[in-house]
C-alpha cells in the first residue's frame, strides 16, 4: 500500500516527519517498508509556456520558443509529437538534473541552439505503467493555470513523500486511506477529518432504467447507481497526481473516480457504459463451465463454476471482484454510467484470481476483506464526484440486492485478563483511553467490560484481539520486561518424534544412510509405487513440470537419487528416508490432503566387496526383508509377508506386502527390471512402510522380566513337505499346537533335490523350550514334540524324517 503523506495530512492533523511516523507505525503493528520522494534527485525543473512551435523541415523536430519566467524566452529544440504552441510544459533548464542523475547542458541540434529540454514524465524517472496514456508517447502537458518559471514539483505533487506500508492479511483495513488515517489518529491521539460530498439527485429514479439481482451465495450485496449525461474527459491534475503517487495509471475522469474511491475507502468499484447493455437487469451469478469473457486487458478468459460473473441479458460483462469486461468499458463516447459497489466472497475471488493469474487492486482487497459499513457511502461519494468532475446527472436512489451486517461487533473481557496477558497494572481508565483513541465504544467496569468494534476493524473478534489492540496503542515499549520463568515439567518427545528417532537409529544401525528427497514430483511418479493411489494433488502454478504434484510414495524420489549416484560411479548404495506422503481422498481443488509419516529405503550393488578371502555378496530380496524384520523386532512387533503381484512397478515374483495384524503397512521387494531401466538404475531393492499406522499399532514397552535361572532345551525336527508349503504356514502350525514352553522357532535348513521325491522339499527347524520356574524333564519335552508333530501332520501334511 502506497500512502501519500500530503493526502494523509489532509485526513489527520499531523506535524511529524515521515521518519518519525514510520518508526511509530512500525512499532505499533503496521510495518513501513520505506519512504520515497518522487522529486528526489531532480532539480531545476520549471514550468514553461510554449510561445511558438515551428516544424524543422525534413525532421521530426520542432523549434520552440518557451517562456520559463526569465527575461527572454528560451529556444528549445524538441522532438515530442504532441508539442504545440500555447501549452504549459516541463522544462529542464541548463544545469538541471533529471532521471539517472543526467545533467542538462546547452547544446546544438542540427545546428540549432537548444537552451534546455522539454521533458516527459518518463524522463523524470516515473515508470511507464502509471503515466497517462495520452502522454505515454510524448511530453507531459501541465494545467493551464501553471505559472511559467515556477517549480513543477507542486503541480505534479512530485514533492510529496510516499510511504510504503507492508500490510499483513489481518490488517487489510489499512488498504485504504481512511483505514490508515484511523490508525495514525489512534497512535497520536488525533481526530480524523474525512471529506464529505453533497449528492444532488434528479426526480428520475435509478429503478426506472436498471434492476439488479443476486443468484449466487458468493455475492453478499450488489448495489448500483446510475449517472446520466456524463462528459468523459481527463481528470483534474490533483486527481491524476494522487493516482500516480499510489501506483495507478490515470485513464479518464469516470474510471479515475472509481480508483480514487478504491484508495480512499478501500471499496473496489466498477463503472459500466449503460448504453452498451442489452437489457436493463444486472444479475450477479456463478459462471458456467465453458463461458468466456474478454476482460479489460483484451484477454479472453475461460470461466468455471467457481467464478463470479456480472451478467446482462445472461451474458457476462464483468468478472466479479477481479476485472471488468471489454464490451461495456467506459470510453470517450460514453454518456450514461452505471456505478457498481459490491461485496464478494473473498475465498472465491482468491481462487479466480489465482487460477487466471489475474491479480488486481480490487481482487486483493476482496480477498482480505471489505468494510461493510461504508459500501453505500462509497457508492454515493463516487456518484457525487461524477456529478462534480464529469457534469453528470445522478438519478434518485440506488438499486440493490442482498444485505450486509453493519452494526458493531461486541467483544467482552476483563481488566484482569488484560493485565495477566500483558504483565501490566493498567487501570480501567487506561483501557478506556486506548479504545477512545481507536474510536471504539466501551462499557462496563474493571470486572467485565464490552467493546463495540466498528465494522472497519473486522480483524477483532475475541478477547485476545482486544489485548493486542491495548498493547499496540499503550505502547510495546512500555510493557514490563521480565525473564522467562522455567516450569518444573521436563520436556519430552511426542510419540511421533520418538518413533522417528527409533526408526532412524535402527536404519543407521543396519548400514543405511539418510537422505531427503523432494516432496514434489510428476503426477505419474506421484502414484507409481503406491499400493492404493488416491487423487493427485497438483500445484496450480508449478515452477517446473517435474515438481508439480505432491508425492504419494517416497520410493520414486529415492530412485532418482539412486540414478544420480549410479551415473557418477557410486554403485553400492544403502539409503533411507523418513518423510511425509500426501493422501487425497477428496477433491484436490477444494480439500487439503492427509499427511502420512512414511519410512522407505533403497538398496543396490554389493553388500560386501570381494577381496582375497571372500567373494562379493550382492543385495537380494532376503537382505532387504531382513532389514524390515530387524525393524519389527526392535519395535517389538511381528510382521507377516505375503506375495504382492499388483504393483506394476515392482517385480511380481520378488515383492511382498508387509502386514501387521492383517493391515497392510507397505511392501518390500525388487524394482521391476523395466522400471529400473526407465530410471537408468541397476537391480535395486526397496521397501516402504506407513509409520503413521505403525505408530498406532505400537504397544507400551514391556515390563522387565527377570532372566530365568533354568536352562533351555532344544530339539531339531526335519519335515518332508509339499513344495508349495511356505515357512509361515509351518510356523503357524507349530504355534497352533499351543505349547506354552516353546520360546523360539528357527529354520536352519531347506533342501530339495536328490533323494527327495518330486514335488517335495525338506525343511529343518530348531525348537527351543524353557520353563522360567523349573527344569524341564525329557518326558515333558517329548509330549511337547508329540503335540507339534500332530499339528504339522494335520495342517501342512508334513512327514517326519
UniProtKB/TrEMBL annotation:
Compartments where found: Cytoplasm
Domain B5, residue spans: 406-481
Ranges of residues in domain FDX-ACB: 708-801
Residues that coordinate or bind Mg(2+): 459, 465, 468-469
EC number(s) recorded for this UniProt protein: 6.1.1.20
CDD domains for the chain: PheRS_beta_core, tRNA_bind_bactPheRS
Catalytic activity line of the entry: tRNA(Phe) + L-phenylalanine + ATP = L-phenylalanyl-tRNA(Phe) + AMP + diphosphate + H(+)
SUPFAM superfamilies membership: Anticodon-binding domain of PheRS (SSF54991), Class II aaRS and biotin synthetases (SSF55681), Nucleic acid-binding proteins (SSF50249), PheT/TilS domain (SSF56037), Putative DNA-binding domain (SSF46955)
Cofactor note: Binds 2 magnesium ions per tetramer.
Segment forming the signal sequence: none
GO molecular function, one term: phenylalanine-tRNA ligase activity
Pfam family, one: tRNA_synthFbeta
TRNA-binding domain segment(s): 39-153
Cofactor: Mg(2+)
SMART domains found in the cross-reference section: B3_4, B5, FDX-ACB
Biological processes annotated in GO: phenylalanyl-tRNA aminoacylation
Swiss-Prot/TrEMBL keywords: Aminoacyl-tRNA synthetase, ATP-binding, Cytoplasm, Ligase, Magnesium, Metal-binding, Nucleotide-binding, Protein biosynthesis, RNA-binding, tRNA-binding
InterPro entries according to UniProt: aa-tRNA-synth_II/BPL/LPL (IPR045864), B3/B4_tRNA-bd (IPR005146), DNA-bd_dom_put_sf (IPR009061), Fdx_antiC-bd (IPR005121), Fdx_antiC-bd_sf (IPR036690), NA-bd_OB-fold (IPR012340), Phe-tRNA-ligase_IIc_bsu (IPR045060), Phe-tRNA-ligase_IIc_bsu_bact (IPR004532)
Database matches in PROSITE patterns: B5, FDX_ACB, TRBD
Cellular component annotations (GO), alphabetically ordered: phenylalanine-tRNA ligase complex
PANTHER family, A to Z: PHENYLALANINE--TRNA LIGASE BETA SUBUNIT, PHENYLALANYL-TRNA SYNTHETASE BETA CHAIN AND LEUCINE-RICH REPEAT-CONTAINING PROTEIN 47
Stated family: Belongs to the phenylalanyl-tRNA synthetase beta subunit family. Type 1 subfamily.
Subunit structure: Tetramer of two alpha and two beta subunits.
Identification of the protein by name: Phenylalanine--tRNA ligase beta subunit
Top-level taxonomy: Bacteria, Bacillati, Bacillota, Bacilli, Lactobacillales
Amino acid at each position: 500500500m502506497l500512502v501519500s503523506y500530503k493526502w494523509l495530512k489532509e485526513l489527520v492533523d499531523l506535524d511529524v516527519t515521515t521518519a518519525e511516523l514510520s518508526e511509530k507505525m512500525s512499532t505499533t503493528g503496521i510495518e513501513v517498508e520505506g519512504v520515497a520522494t518522487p522529486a528526489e534527485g531532480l532539480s531545476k525543473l520549471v514550468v514553461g509556456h510554449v510561445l511558438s512551435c515551428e516544424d524543422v523541415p525534413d525532421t521530426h523536430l520542432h523549434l520552440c520558443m518557451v517562456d520559463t519566467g526569465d527575461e527572454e524566452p528560451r529556444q528549445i529544440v524538441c522532438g515530442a509529437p504532441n508539442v504545440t504552441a500555447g501549452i504549459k510544459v516541463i522544462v529542464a533548464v541548463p544545469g538541471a538534473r533529471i532521471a539517472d542523475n543526467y545533467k542538462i547542458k546547452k547544446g546544438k541540434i542540427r545546428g540549432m541552439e537548444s537552451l534546455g529540454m522539454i521533458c516527459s514524465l518518463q524522463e523524470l524517472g516515473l515508470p511507464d505503467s502509471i503515466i497517462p496514456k495520452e502522454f505515454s508517447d510524448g511530453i507531459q502537458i501541465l494545467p493551464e493555470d501553471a505559472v511559467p518559471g515556477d517549480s513543477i514539483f507542486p503541480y505534479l505533487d512530485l514533492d510529496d513523500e510516499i510511504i510504503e506500508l507492508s500490510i499483513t492479511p489481518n490488517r487489510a483495513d489499512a488498504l485504504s486511506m481512511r483505514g490508515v488515517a484511523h490508525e495514525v489518529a489512534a497512535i497520536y491521539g488525533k481526530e480524523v477529518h474525512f471529506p464529505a460530498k453533497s449528492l444532488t439527485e434528479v426526480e428520475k429514479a435509478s429503478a426506472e432504467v436498471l434492476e439488479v439481482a443476486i443468484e449466487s451465495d458468493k455475492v453478499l450485496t450488489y448495489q448500483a447507481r446510475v449517472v446520466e449525461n456524463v462528459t468523459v474527459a481527463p481528470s483534474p491534475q490533483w486527481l491524476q497526481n494522487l493516482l500516480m503517487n499510489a501506483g495507478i495509471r490515470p485513464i479518464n475522469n469516470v474510471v479515475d473516480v472509481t480508483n480514487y474511491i478504491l484508495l480512499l475507502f478501500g471499496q473496489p468499484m466498477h463503472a459500466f457504459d449503460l448504453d452498451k447493455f442489452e437489457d436493463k437487469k444486472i444479475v450477479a451469478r456463478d459462471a458456467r463451465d465453458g463461458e468466456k469473457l474478454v476482460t479489460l486487458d483484451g484477454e479472453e478468459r475461460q470461466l468455471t463454476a467457481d467464478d463470479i460473473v456480472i451478467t446482462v441479458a445472461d451474458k457476462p460483462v464483468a468478472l466479479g471482484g477481479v476485472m471488468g469486461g471489454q464490451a461495456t468499458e467506459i470510453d470517450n463516447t460514453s454518456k450514461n454510467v452505471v456505478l457498481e459497489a459490491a461485496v464478494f466472497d473473498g475465498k472465491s475471488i482468491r481462487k479466480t484470481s489465482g487460477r487466471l493469474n489475474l491479480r488486481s487492486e480490487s481482487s486483493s482487497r476482496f480477498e482480505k476483506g471489505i468494510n461493510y459499513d461504508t459500501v453505500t457511502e462509497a457508492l454515493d461519494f463516487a456518484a457525487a464526484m461524477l456529478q462534480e468532475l464529469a457534469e453528470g446527472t445522478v438519478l434518485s436512489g440506488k438499486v440493490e440486492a442482498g444485505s450486509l451486517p453493519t452494526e458493531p461487533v461486541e467483544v467482552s473481557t476483563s481488566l484482569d485478563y488484560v493485565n495477566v496477558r500483558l504483565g501490566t497494572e493498567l487501570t480501567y481508565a487506561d483501557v478506556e483511553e486506548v479504545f477512545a483513541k481507536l474510536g471504539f465504544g466501551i462499557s462496563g467496569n474493571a470486572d467485565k467490560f464490552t467493546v463495540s468494534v466498528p465494522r472497519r476493524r473486522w480483524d477483532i473478534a475475541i478477547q485476545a484481539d482486544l489485548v493486542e489492540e491495548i498493547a499496540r496503542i499503550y505502547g510495546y515499549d512500555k510493557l514490563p520486561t521480565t525473564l522467562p520463568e522455567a516450569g518444573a515439567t521436563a520436556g519430552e518427545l511426542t510419540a511421533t518424534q520418538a518413533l522417528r528417532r527409533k526408526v532412524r537409529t535402527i536404519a543407521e544401525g543396519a548400514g543405511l544412510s539418510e537422505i531427503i528427497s523432494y516432496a514434489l514430483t510428476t503426477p505419474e511418479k506421484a502414484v507409481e509405487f503406491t499400493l492404493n493411489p488416491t487423487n493427485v494433488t497438483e500445484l496450480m502454478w508449478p515452477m517446473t513440470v517435474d515438481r508439480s504434484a505432491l508425492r504419494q510414495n517416497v520410493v520414486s524420489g529415492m530412485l532418482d537419487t539412486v540414478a544420480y549416484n549410479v551415473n557418477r560411479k557410486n554403485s553400492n548404495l544403502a539409503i533411507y528416508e523418513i518423510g511425509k506422503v500426501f493422501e487425497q481422498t477428496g477433491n484436490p481443488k477444494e480439500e487439503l490432503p492427509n499427511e502420512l509419516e512414511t519410512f522407505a529405503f533403497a538398496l543396490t550393488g554389493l553388500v560386501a566387496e570381494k577381496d582375497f578371502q571372500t567373494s562379493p555378496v550382492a543385495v537380494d530380496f532376503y537382505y532387504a526383508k531382513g532389514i524390515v524384520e530387524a525393524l519389527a523386532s526392535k519395535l517389538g512387533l511381528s510382521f507377516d509377508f505375503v506375495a504382492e503381484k499388483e504393483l506394476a512397478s515392482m517385480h511380481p515374483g520378488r515383492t511382498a506386502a508387509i502386514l501387521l495384524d492383517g493391515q497392510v503397512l507397505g511392501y518390500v521387494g525388487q524394482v521391476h527390471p523395466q522400471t529400473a531401466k526407465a530410471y537408468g538404475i541397476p537391480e535395486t531393492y526397496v521397501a516402504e512402510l506407513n509409520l503413521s499406522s505403525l505408530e498406532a499399532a505400537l504397544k507400551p514397552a514391556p515390563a522387565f522380566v527377570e532372566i530365568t535361572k533354568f536352562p533351555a532345551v532344544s530339539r531339531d525336527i526335519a519335515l518332508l513337505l509339499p513344495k508349495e508349503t511356505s515357512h509361515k504356514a509351518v510356523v503357524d502350525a507349530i504355534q497352533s499346537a499351543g505349547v506354552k514352553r516353546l520360546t523360539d522357532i528357527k529354520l536352519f535348513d531347506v533342501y530339495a533335490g536328490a533323494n527327495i521325491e518330486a514335488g517335495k522339499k525338506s525343511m529343518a527347524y530348531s525348537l527351543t523350550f524353557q520353563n522360567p520356574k523349573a527344569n524341564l524333564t525329557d518326558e515333558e519335552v517329548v509330549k511337547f514334540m508329540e503335540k507339534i508333530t500332530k499339528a504339522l501332520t494335520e495342517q501342512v501334511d508334513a512327514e517326519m524324517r
